[in-house]
User: Fold these one by one.
Assistant:
Number 1:
Amino acid sequence: MRHFITILVCAVSLFLSLPAVAGNAEAGKKTALGKGCAGCHGVDGNSINPQWPKLAGQNAHYLAKSLKIFRGNDSETYGRIDPIMVGIAKMLSDEDIANLAAYFATQKMQTGEADPELVTLGYNIYRGGDKAKSIPSCMGCHGPTGAGNPASGYPALAGQWAAYTEAQLLHFKSEERRTDRNQMMRDITSKMNREEIKAVASYIQGLYD
Ligand code: HEC
Ligand code: HEC
């Protein structure tokens, strides 16, 4: 029995120590150009249109997860049914996804600026939450510089377009987007009003590490 447990523990730790999908960034760049991702998200993952998310510097695990949700038959279950992304993701193989994720993860995010009128409220929520309303700080999961935490599945936020971030927070609030494990983001946004959402999205646009 003891042997069996030892073998089991070894097998599990071996499994856990395997690297996550190791993509090839070089090949990913070619795919980004070939499949037209660059047209919207920018060659280096810095999009120009604030409705299209920047992908530069996002962790590879989260990029791959999002692409698989768009591609999968359950994108409706997760409420990410963006018609453009769903159509495009269907053309991607697992290898394409790993390569694209590796490529965009190695690019540098170009950050923006926060709206001076919203920055105080945004700062307070991002860094301290709101105890009276039981809103946790965003920093607790997404990190003080907004770099995220790949191991826990928390995406990087720093420098992202405020318009995109605001739209996603509203999608969580309306429960249209249901990609978040244990409803983490749906719970938080259910306690936030539109002004708070707008302010924190603006603060995030100006955040950098
Ligand atoms: C015509 C414009 C367009 C093209 C082309 C396009 N995208 Fe997108 N992409 C979008 C939009 C808009 C969204 C936001 C969708 C939403 O609101 O959920 C998005 C979202 C994403 C996300 C999720 C980002 C996040 O932070 O959750 C990833 C990853 C992504 N795209 C990767 C790609 C890749 C890889 C390609 C090429 C194979 C591609 N996109 C092509 C417009 C585009
Ligand atoms: C308990 C941990 C936790 C806290 C606290 C938290 N988040 Fe999140 N957040 C997540 C997770 C997990 C996801 C990824 C959901 C998914 O996989 O699609 C996420 C996703 C997001 C996204 C979507 C990113 C994208 O590119 O589409 C935004 C925006 C976001 N969070 C903003 C915030 C803000 C603003 C706060 C503070 C008000 C906050 N988060 C607090 C865990 C957290």
Note: The mean pLDDT is 91.
Number 2:
Amino acid sequence: MKISLAISSLLGMFLLLSMVTNAPTKQWNSEDNLYDVLFALGETKPKHYIQGTPEQIKQGEEIIKEGRTHRMGKRSRRVSKYYMCTTCHNVEQEDPDLRVSNPETRLDYVKAKGIPFLQGSTFKGIVNRETWYNDDYVKKYGAEKIGEAHEDLRNAIQLCAVECAQGRKMKDWEVESVLAYYWSLQFTLGDLNLSSEEMRELNQAMVQRGDTRKTLNWLKSKYAQKSAATFFDPPPSKHTGYEGLTGDPTRGKDIYELSCLFCHQPGGVSHYLLDDKKQSFQHLKSKIPKDTHFSLYQIIAYGTYAIPGHKPYMPHYPLERMSKQQVEDLRAYIEQQAE
Ligand code: HEC
Ligand code: HEC
């Protein structure tokens, strides 16, 4: 009697234990890749989904940061003679809040990290976006070219290699390597800044498997699915500047150093050299009110175009990459330093 009781209670314990271990016990934590969670919630794999090998990831990283890589013992040809992808794009998180693209908060954030403030959006989390070259970029490159790049990350890579970087079309294996590297930069749950309460709720929702669509949408509300781009014009009067805004030279200094100098200091991508000398500031200052691309207002809003015989050009800043307030901040700094 005693023995059978002992056996049956042991059996009961085993049963309980196995029930516990068979239950969906996967607890998501901050290191988990965001896409793994989305897939578990029923999200379909995007067109650009690949599982890159460590070698592909390394090759992709070299293409992005050094412009070329090695394959089967041979050095590959440069994608662009003029730029690295990282001339215009960071590879680290650059917005403190992934839901909004705000150049004001970005400036402080990149400054603290010691990375530049650039026209192109970061590659961190680029695989978590669902469209590329958004909004006003259609104007710049035309609906036909954008059509292919807007909804397909592979085409967006190609478009930028040829148009932005003024380079050559990449080979298929190169595009796949860049993609593999991009996948290594996808968001983790931790990047979304969820509170511990929200993490608990997420894990509960995963166990209960109720309305997974709702959980999916909730997760997607924690980051932007695209990098927005709104183009803008110089102010009607370059003397007055943008109406109602007063520049702050301290903020302007950060923009000058983290953005302009990144490309215009000696050894950068431009022949047009800038530095901290009074003459440089005086030159920039004298051009501000003029109708020329040497005017801050014009160069920031419009950039320059690549012309035959001289391929390096300067990409313009959409409002999401530099605000009108920041243009005034930069002006205030330049005018202060020119005195
Ligand atoms: C001269 C500057 C410049 C260089 C060099 C450059 N890009 Fe870009 N790229 C841009 C700008 C500007 C955009 C449009 C804004 C943005 O990033 O969303 C862009 C957009 C992109 C996008 C779409 C991003 C999105 O979410 O809309 C991809 C992908 C891309 N570039 C890949 C590359 C790759 C790969 C290279 C190197 C082979 C490269 N870029 C080199 C300036 C550049
Ligand atoms: C991503 C690199 C990059 C950044 C960032 C950048 N520029 Fe440029 N800029 C260029 C390139 C390339 C040219 C084309 C001229 C050349 O080939 O040297 C250019 C051209 C210019 C010109 C016209 C010069 C000429 O000879 O036609 C001015 C003025 C200028 N930039 C100012 C600025 C200012 C001010 C900032 C900061 C707000 C800035 N640039 C940020 C790369 C950059």
Note: The chain has a mean pLDDT of 92.
Number 3:
Amino acid sequence: MRKLLIFGVGTLALAFGAMAARTAAPPDPPGAGDTVSAWVLAASDTANLKGPRQPIFFRHDIHVGVAKTPCQYCHYSAGESSEPGMPSVQSCMGCHLIIGGTDTTHQVEISKLRDAWNNKQPIEWVRVHTLARHARFPHQRHIKAMGPNACQTCHGDIARMPQVFKVNNVNNMGFCITCHVERQVNRDCTACHY
Ligand code: HEC
Ligand code: HEC
Ligand code: HEC
Ligand code: HEC
Ligand code: HEC
């Protein structure tokens, strides 16, 4: 584990060096004690994870929990737009041109990413949260009012999730209304419904 960590810090330092050229604020490399309980999950463990399986086994616990990449590095428009934004394959490759993975399982998943990059194919992520078409949810209004770390209020502790699952049922109107009542926010039907 210790060896793995040291290697990880080395590769990260390299990766962040490469990234600094194209991004304003590269994320900090992981420090001591920033390990997740296990970098590598056994197949039997992954079968039991909550949430939909994704085309590439992308892990928030590693990218956010360990590598400390800020949410908005990837979900780049959460503060400015209704849609939080999803990272392009190119933004993944900012690190993964260099980082190939320390473990076979990681290498296999990262090779899927590199294939997508080489074939110029977007990755078709499976949606976890989706509202019905008659409802709207503006991310930017919530981030402006509740701050950049508000994500957790609705999405739970993503930084510890190997696979994203729904913590709150956002398709239950009561979830929205309860907080809007608490914070004395607009509750007109037309604020949320088309
Ligand atoms: C800030 C740098 C960075 C960015 C950006 C990044 N990664 Fe990673 N990624 C890492 C590091 C560090 C690891 C751990 C590598 C190891 O030692 O196995 C990793 C591991 C992985 C793995 C193997 C472990 C796992 O998660 O199952 C996959 C797959 C992966 N990344 C996919 C992606 C995808 C897809 C994107 C874009 C959405 C992306 N990465 C963006 C740094 C990054
Ligand atoms: C390195 C890029 C990267 C970072 C950093 C990142 N994400 Fe993600 N996020 C993704 C990718 C890729 C997906 C789609 C695959 C999946 O669901 O895991 C995703 C999916 C999600 C989803 C599910 C989307 C849906 O369909 O409902 C949520 C919620 C989310 N991220 C929140 C966060 C939060 C909160 C943070 C910070 C704590 C964060 N993400 C940091 C790349 C990233
Ligand atoms: C007040 C609750 C709330 C907060 C706070 C919130 N979200 Fe969401 N998020 C939602 C809802 C509801 C949806 C589904 C929206 C839809 O279907 O139109 C969603 C969807 C998403 C998706 C999927 C978007 C897609 O295009 O696939 C991502 C990624 C995401 N949120 C990331 C974040 C991040 C990152 C933050 C913090 C910067 C955040 N969210 C803060 C409620 C929230
Ligand atoms: C944890 C608290 C919280 C939750 C949960 C929440 N909201 Fe909000 N909502 C807010 C706050 C705070 C504002 C910001 C009001 C402002 O801009 O001053 C807001 C603003 C809005 C607005 C803009 C209202 C206007 O003034 O026009 C809409 C639309 C909205 N929310 C929809 C939703 C929907 C849909 C959901 C459920 C999927 C939801 N919200 C869940 C706290 C919340
Ligand atoms: C703060 C946002 C918000 C407000 C205000 C709001 N709704 Fe909703 N409503 C939602 C969301 C989110 C859903 C769930 C959409 C989905 O299924 O994904 C919903 C669902 C519904 C449904 C579908 C049945 C159900 O319960 O799921 C009806 C009908 C409805 N709303 C009527 C209303 C009426 C009438 C008002 C005004 C009195 C209102 N809504 C105000 C967010 C809101």
Note: The two ends are 52 Å apart (CA to CA).
Number 4:
Amino acid sequence: MFKISTIIIISILFLAGVSFGSDEDEILLKQANKIFGPLPQAMVSEKNPISRQKVKLGKMFFYETRISVDGTVSCSRCHPIGLYAADGLRKSIGNNCKVNPRNAPTIFNAAGQISEHWIGNRVDVEDQAKQAVIGPPSFGMPSYEAVEKRLKEIKGYGPLFKEAFPQDKDPVTVDNFAKAVGAFERTLVTPSRFDAFVKGELTALSDNQKRGLKTFVETDCMTCHSSAYVGGQMYQKFGVFEPYWQYTRSKEIDEGRYVVTKNESDKYVFKVPILRNVEMTSPYFHDGSVDHLYDAVRIMGKIQLGKDLDKSRVEEIVTFLKSLTGEIPEDALKIPLLPSTN
Ligand code: HEC
Ligand code: HEC
């Protein structure tokens, strides 16, 4: 008798526990849908519709070093696809070993942001690709004409440009180069377990990841890091409560968007970065000044929210952030064969 009642009580408690758990999960799912939502299949643009031909050509350009001033620089140097499209350096190294002013963010999911670059001085991925080829610290080419000349010299590209831009009379242009690269980047989405959860699969995240998601939301990280990209949708001051360099120990002080707008209110303002794949893209912040995700999260709590997060909270958040590590698109991992220099 005693045994049976014990079993009944235990089962009631167990069932109550389970149903309470899943109720909580449902609430969390609703919240996650409101704040984030799943990644799209591709990051489309009316100005630059994606086509198979453009993506194919754009992917080739991604590995093309012959359009750089010293013949060694391609996009893949600073955004290696197999390493989650970030180079792991504090600051990237461009042509003739020039050091870039900021850290290279991943290009995965990057086309979904309001703008490109840490200070938003590139309109979209097409604008970014176009300006990169004449960027003094990256490709360093002297002019767009010089880039077009190089592209035309590699005869194998002519027919591929024609296929990708059939309407154009003279398709071998830097603008079309940029559109092709942009189309390729627009396909680089990396869905993860988190997307499965947001789509309703309650068991896609572990209990620890769910706890971390809850902590991320309750701590108010999502006031800045929101949308399917978990960031990339607004500009904010880095160091709302205290100057960032006191925590990051940055050697140089970057004035952020002030450099672009010259508005006093834009001092130390940066684009809120996307947190997709953040586990894989150390070092952190615009100058790569912080090596560990744990420290980046602790610093965020302190200087963006004025909160001293204890060790367990920080660890919970890091556990959640790891659930944002997605699959690298299989096709993007295949390195294309480039046309020869005749
Ligand atoms: C020499 C290294 C280097 C090369 C080469 C390079 N990048 Fe970058 N990339 C960077 C750095 C550094 C940044 C950040 C610049 C900034 O914010 O001031 C960046 C930023 C970006 C961003 C913006 C990401 C975001 O979240 O804002 C995109 C997109 C991008 N690069 C794509 C490309 C493409 C496409 C190419 C080739 C055409 C390329 N990059 C070549 C280093 C490089
Ligand atoms: C007030 C807006 C705001 C809030 C709130 C906020 N962040 Fe940030 N976050 C930013 C900005 C802006 C940056 C870019 C800083 C820079 O210039 O390097 C950033 C950068 C980061 C980075 C570094 C990403 C990278 O690729 O280098 C991480 C990680 C991060 N935030 C996590 C969090 C977490 C976790 C919380 C909550 C504890 C949080 N953030 C709260 C605005 C915010």
Note: The radius of gyration is 23 Å.
